[in-house]
């Protein structure tokens, strides 16, 4: 009897968590549905969209570039000895190129952006909610969902793929630099080999996937910020949970994308 | 139990406003009838009634968390009441579609508790923001500068036009927020705790501003506060919000002289 | 306002650049799959596609000229592979070219190699079917290699046995190799043979000179000129000498080869090790050679004392002495 009470308590706690999780998923789905509904209704907040695109795209380029460069560098340095052991060091550009374009580039860039953009949106919208700025917008006749949420989700959906393209390129440049210094492989040969190894089966799913990454980052950031709890603590929680949830969803989306593209491309 | 108490109090009740309307031949711009709103187990509004007449300054007083803010948000459609009837300028809020609601909102100014200036915009952009969707109301405006300047001059802050909100002091922010509220020349202004978080001198300045604006534009004002000084200076009529209902109603002097313990609690120093 | 314009400009550059990069990547990939150049299609039939995939390269004499764009099973032993080839290759690939499946390096992806056929043939045209050779793939190569390896292992074992018996002095070659006296003898014999043959050669040239002088210049030999009998005899002797010396030369060369082979331990070893008969013959021929050289020496000595050539030899000795004195 004494033992059964805490166990019942535990189960109810787990069930409560599970319930909370499904509520979150449900709310997020409604939020996404509202996004699509408002996306195609006039008026369109074009100026704000451009501003957000600039904030998210150009302002993240430095960060994404640096991360990409280091990832390319490290990936090449780390896998070189193994490839040498196999006597397949001439396959380095193929291996690094495919892994960067297919997986590492998009995922790393998206994770970096989840850290920078999703938390930024979460905190910004959260504090706007707490200080009643969102209410103020609503009262002044501007639909805050359209003005704040739609523009931001759209901006991430459009900007993340471009950031990923830059991230991929810079990562490949980093990798090519290592190959050039350590293996005397010219840049031309490196990129020739990379593009020889790549096919549309690598590029197209990765590009489509990156749009979903962008959408997830924007959606989760806005969702967490828009429904922020009152108080400064709420803002912190919004920013924090936005990053956690966005990162988690990114991996789930990535898994689904790989799964689906596997079916389509039979690779 | 509440009803018993209501009977004991001298000035009250739901039918009272009907009489006063006839007396002063005034037009009601806001009318709340039996509004209820609850968050879970917490019944914030419990059959609240209120009438705001054109051109008057009405103060609603209540303790923190008594549902003043909820009530005022229901007025502009930021929240929907659980039940009850809310009418603003002859239109029932809950029946309006988005566009009509927005049009109606352009006639209502709302001064938020924490000023609610947009952090990412300059003062000028803050003031221009309400004009984005309400151009029709002001006619075709090519240059917004004179309008912005006029609104800022009303609050005495014309020089701050290109500053960011975080470069302003709390009192200045409040005044800029007031200017933003005024820019669309609303017929009704709702003040949510206009003096909260300000020192007494700045609070007095804000109250003076509110009075001068009311005189200048002839707006009707609904002021929510728990600040007795503010209420005394500005109120023409007062409503006390207690336990989710309009507990007592009257002028400042009438209510401050009341012997009802719940009313007395407000005026105790 | 100006600030916003600058931001929009930067954003524009960012977006356009990103899109262009993506398009370049797509173009480069597509270009390698011959999506944007004029192409034509040919086929080849194989028994085994060995892991060939759509998009694998097609090479003509080692240059990438196209890609595989279809692999179809026609029946259980026939696989038809369709290839897209760049249009500008139409002039170079002939109808008799041969297609085979290979790999790009040992672990690289599969590809189709087209090799020009021999002889003259007309240019290829779209839809043609190339001849194919089912070259061994890496796997076949590996299996062959493993068989070779097994054989090599067996061979080494055999060799080990042979070398053991050799070092133990068993068998004739063992004897031959281990018998140092005999080896020394052999060495000496060969040196002698060399010397002899050199000398013989020299003698023969000298004799030739003498004979020439007999025929045309020397008056002192006039007597002999009419004496045809003596002349013939001398000629015979010389001819004999010539054949003998050339035979000796040949023999010594052979011997040299044999010795070299024995020393290297290559080639003839296994042959020799088992052929005791050859060794016996070798021994006998050694004896014969020794006898032959002795006889030759005797002949030479006799020639020196012959009245006809005695003068010439004396002259030679004098000249030598003069040279020594000088």
Q: How would you characterize the overall build of this protein?
A:
The complex is a heterotrimer of chains A (267), B (269) and C (326). Chain A is mainly α and 267 residues long. Chain B has 269 residues and is α/β, with parallel strands linked by helices. The N terminus of chain B is likely disordered. Chain B has 12 helices and 10 strands. Chain B has a domain of 186 residues: P-loop containing nucleotide triphosphate hydrolases (Rossmann fold), CATH 3.40.50.300. Chain B starts with a helix and ends with a helix. With 326 residues, chain C is an alpha/beta fold. Chain C has 3 domains: 99 residues; 26 residues; 157 residues. Chain C contains 9 helices and 7 strands, in the order αβββββββαααααααα. Chain C has a 7-stranded mixed β-barrel. About 2% of the residues of chain C have low confidence. The chains are: A mainly alpha (267), B alpha/beta (269), C alpha/beta (326). Chain C: It comes from Maribacter caenipelagi. Chain C: Keywords: Coiled coil, Membrane, Transmembrane, Transmembrane helix.
Q: What's the arrangement of secondary structure elements?
A:
The complex is a heterotrimer of chains A (267), B (269) and C (326).
Chain A: H1 4-39, H2 46-85, H3 92-130, H4 133-139, H5 144-183, H6 187-197, H7 200-226, H8 232-265
Helix pairs in contact in A: 1-5, 2-3, 2-5, 3-5, 3-6, 3-7, 3-8, 5-7, 7-8
Chain B: H1 2-8, H2 16-24, E1 28-39, E2 42-53, E3 57-62, H3 68-75, E4 83-88, E5 91-92, H4 98-105, E6 108-111, H5 123-128, H6 135-138, H7 145-154, H8 170-182, E7 188-192, H9 200-217, E8 220-225, H10 228-234, E9 237-242, E10 245-250, H11 252-256, H12 261-267
Parallel strand pairs in B: 3-8, 3-9, 6-7, 7-8
Antiparallel strand pairs in B: 1-2, 1-4, 4-5, 9-10
Helix pairs in contact in B: 7-8
Chain C: H1 2-32, E1 39-46, E2 57-60, E3 63-75, E4 78-86, E5 98-103, E6 110-115, E7 129-132, H2 138-167, H3 171-178, H4 180-216, H5 222-226, H6 228-264, H7 268-274, H8 276-305, H9 307-325
Parallel strand pairs in C: 1-7, 2-6, 5-7
Antiparallel strand pairs in C: 1-4, 2-3, 3-4, 5-6
Helix pairs in contact in C: 3-7, 4-6, 4-8
